[in-house]
Structure prediction request, 96 residues.
Amino acid sequence: MMMVVTYDVNTASAGGEKRLRKVARICEKYGIRVQNSVFEIMLDASQLVVLKDSLEKVIDLENDSVRFYRMGNTWEQKVETMGKIPLIQTGKALIL
Prediction:
């Protein structure tokens, strides 16, 4: 299933910059960054559990937030883009 994952890490608090980099690195393992703190991620239910667990271990639950938007399997009909489009689009074949 396609998900959009967004996060807001409080960089004013102690360790915020480090948490921000860790959250980004975790998300990069699963999907493509489409904006600064926004990722499009294709995963199954078990991968989602692992992703959530990894993020929960990194963020400060009192100051940071992560949001998960389930786009489902018909996500292409729900996404409209204006402006710059990433070179690699989620769910498309990648030929090397």
Remarks:
- The mean pLDDT is 86.
